[in-house]
Amino acid sequence: MERSSRVAPQRFVISHHNEADFKTGGLRDYSAYRDLGVAAATHGLAKAHVIRMIAPFRTELSLRHHHNVQFQLVYCLKGWFQTDFEGIGPQRLVAGSCWVQPPGIRHTVVGWSDDCELLEILIPAEHETINDP
After folding, report:
1. Phi (first) and psi of residue 56, to 5 degrees
2. From its phi and psi, is residue 96 left (phi > 0), alpha (psi between -120 and 50) or beta?
3. Which of 5, 10, 76, 123 registers the highest number of CB atoms within 10 A of its CB?
4. pTM for the whole thing?
5. Which CATH class is domain 24-131?
6. pLDDT at 1
7. Strand ranges (DSSP E) for 26-124?
């Protein structure tokens, strides 16, 4: 199989669980993020991280928004997480379930459990999140 000269080769990466790898200061201040190294390994093609909810849900955290991505998958590792999607309605993930969000779908997070942890995979790694009116 011939590889395009415009695509940088991917490299092997492994990420083992380490509590010190959870960092705040990401997209939302109520979450801590553990980068799994996928963006660096794929030269920005994709991103994967574990999101841990570190604050109890409050209704003022519910902001309608969308992401300019080509692909977004959310898998619930622990607890539960609920979002209201435009045109679909409220959906709840529980441990072991996942959804794929179509590119640009407007949504509002409407709740999570205190022990909620999510795996999120995005393409591309760098993308814009836009708060909707």
Report:
1. -65, 150
2. left
3. 76
4. 0.88
5. mainly beta
6. 45
7. 31-35, 47-53, 65-68, 71-78, 80-85, 89-94, 98-100, 107-112, 117-123
